[in-house]
Write a structure and sequence with these properties.
The chain is an all-beta fold. It has no helices and 12 strands. The strands form 3 sheets. It has a 5-stranded antiparallel β-sheet with strand order 1-4-5-12-11, with no helix packed on it. About 17% of the residues have low confidence.
């Protein structure tokens, strides 16, 4: 990009005009009878110094996992951290959410050498808290986590309506 974005959550810079890619994501709900739909849109840009991400995330909504799976309690989580499910203790849950992040959050895995064994993780929650780490696959079910790695990432979060937006930047190695 010719000019870096302002990291204000507005997406009004020229680098975001190329468009976003929409991704529909789902994960199993807490009662195993529902799935949680968490759609997002992402755009990526870069310059000589940094890699930039823009993400637009819609509010998570539970939907039936399958016809006849039973009546799941419909919930509409709030984007307000005072009203939504926020972790009391830093820990990793069964969906792999990172230590200390509130829900909702988004995680970006980068595997620049396409090894599927070593990766970098950047995660940000809707309060703008960033967690980053390196990971090394030990085997198909386990990975070694290195929380000492610091991506020096910066992020800005903007909430509004039923969506929240993230602009994040990460320095490229010299």
């Amino acid at each position: 990009t010719d000019a870096p974005p302002a990291l204000d959550g507005e997406f009004d810079e020229a680098c975001w005009k190329g468009g976003f890619t929409r991704i529909e994501t789902f994960y199993t709900g807490p009662d195993a009878r529902t799935a949680v739909r968490a759609p997002l849109e992402i755009a990526v840009a870069f310059d000589d110094a940094r890699l930039y991400f823009a993400l637009r995330l819609e509010e998570e909504r539970e939907v039936p996992a399958a016809p006849g799976a039973g009546e799941g309690a419909a919930r509409e989580p709030s984007l307000d951290p005072g009203k939504g499910p926020v972790r009391d203790e830093p820990k990793e849950d069964d969906r792999g959410e990172e230590k200390g992040l509130a829900r909702p959050s988004v995680q970006i895995y980068l595997d620049p050498q396409e090894t599927y064994q070593r990766f970098f993780l950047l995660a940000v929650d809707n309060n703008g808290r960033i967690v980053d780490r390196r990971g090394f696959e030990v085997d198909r079910r386990r990975e070694k986590k290195d929380f000492s790695w610091d991506a020096a990432a910066e992020a800005s979060v903007k909430k509004g309506g039923s969506a929240w937006r993230v602009e994040m930047s990460v320095p490229l190695p010299a």
